[in-house]
């Protein structure tokens, strides 16, 4: 019979094995921030992440004993090894949180105890930090250091824990009771409306008239609802607007599956907007709010989000649904690595600005060398980060300002938003390229 082993030795061995395997697979060690000089995990890594979040000692108290038998030691090692991708992402998120802490000028408190659990939370919710990592980390810093009573992400977690079964049933009821009206092909004049909105030589007054017509029509809602029915209306809309998506690139979508299905109540954040869990959507609302005291109670936020998940584009408000529709049309034409001819002057100018930037030129050369790159993939399908960021922005506006009229958010405001999203995504891409170049130069 194998003698029991000290728990600390089991954890240290499992951690070292995990680090070695990750380095062998990727050529890099993302765990340095969480490891000690001996190669094992820091004491606070064990205290703040491994015990409560990986081994879950509350549910598995036997894993917390000073001595572990063979079965327990094997289980502990397997759990740590299985968590390697999430732990690696947590280490990367910890770096993002530290950077935003410096930006915010925060100096108090132990950063490992404050941020290790939150970094793991972000890893579970968002996976590997991507283009919007800095903004998500900044929102988390606010959540940690400026929480409003009863309105923190921790309060949201507690609420979801307590009412999980009831809320899951409510989500299922919304999706099973909603009837989908038939959606016809987009009307022929929809292309004329879009052309007027995105033209670079149309009078502002005329553009506003077309914008008001679009927001007052049923087209944005019909296309947005069809995302959950047949999922073909975006393709038909792009065809009506004479927009051709290259065969080598997937057509723009707000979900990884077509048609989109009900989002999970909780779980890891997906890459595309409609695949994000209800918990992630509400947490984002909390983190982005500058004054949480002005928000409804968490219970109402969750209930509203469940109902909203089956609304057109999963957004409230005709203006924001129309903005989503125009955003998809714009996103379908943005190919910085290989600019395409566009029937819309606004999009042509945007594409030219993107394509001329140095990091785009670098990536183009990178592709010509026959190399593969996640960054290059993101640029090939620029619509992915573009639509993800646009939807989050519209989602926030639809919660706080659902009844905004087209006179207040006019066509000029729409174009400013669409252009600003492209600039924001491009800026993040540039930062990622710079990091790759600096790493290669070391």
Strand and helix map with partners:
Layout (H helix, E strand, L loop, with lengths): L4 E2 H20 L16 H12 L12 E2 L1 H13 L1 H21 L6 H16 L6 H13 L7 H10 L1 H14 L12 H9 L5 H13 L2 H8 L6 H8 L37 H11 L9 H11 L9 H14 L13 H11 L2 H11 L5 H7 L2 H18 L10 H31 L1
Antiparallel strand pairs: 1-2
Helix pairs in contact: 1-3, 2-5, 4-5, 4-6, 6-13, 7-13, 8-14, 9-10, 11-15, 13-14, 15-19, 17-20, 19-20
Could you characterize the architecture of this molecule?
This protein has 442 residues and is mainly alpha-helical. It has two domains: 141 residues, no CATH class; 289 residues, no CATH class. Helix content is 61%, strand content 1%. A two-stranded antiparallel ribbon has the order 1-2. Helix 4 crosses helix 6, helix 6 crosses helix 13 and helix 7 runs antiparallel to helix 13. The radius of gyration is 24 Å and the shape is globular. The relative contact order is 0.09.
Could you name the key traits of this structure?
single chain; 442 residues; mainly alpha; two-stranded antiparallel sheet; 2 strands
